[in-house]
Specification:
about 150 residues; alpha+beta; five-stranded antiparallel sheet; binds zinc ion
């Protein structure tokens, strides 16, 4: 084993500041589960209280209490929908007016993700997305992109 001989400057060592510094709550962040305020010195990406172990052995972990399987699934779908929305907006902003079925699939679009789908009077499939809609020809699979 190679021993690395590096002198780490004193101020770069991560010290456990623990309870030595008074907690401030100026950021106004709070736990997503129990809504308790999160101290400013905690990592900015922290969304939950730290896991606590009580003297009687009980533990309280807001993060695992919050992320129930249902919530996980919901969040996954929400993320997918946001992705679809921004992909659609990109297409529209780019001035694209048509796309192929391959592109449609490649971009992760799915008719299930549309806000609404229904057949048009010309027997095309209309799929409503945020910011516009798609007109899909069910015979040729040609897709027209229509801005709202
Ligand atoms: Zn909490």
């Amino acid at each position: 084993m190679i021993k690395l001989n590096i002198d780490i400057p004193n101020n770069m060592i991560n010290r456990d500041v623990g309870n030595n510094i008074p907690h401030t709550y100026k950021d106004g962040r709070c736990c997503r589960y129990c809504k308790n305020p999160l101290p400013d010195h905690t990592n900015k990406s922290r969304e939950f209280c730290e896991k606590r172990v009580f003297s009687d052995g009980r533990t309280m972990d807001c993060k695992s209490l919050y992320w129930t399987p249902e919530r996980r699934q919901e969040s996954k779908i929400e993320k997918q929908q946001q992705q679809i929305c921004s992909s659609f907006k990109e297409l529209v902003d780019y001035g694209k007016t048509e796309m192929t079925w391959e592109e449609f699939c490649f971009k992760g679009f799915s008719l299930k993700m549309a806000k609404q789908t229904y057949p048009s009077t010309e027997k095309k499939i209309v799929a409503i997305f945020e910011g516009g809609h798609l007109l899909i020809d069910p015979n040729t699979y040609n897709i027209k992109i229509v801005k709202q």
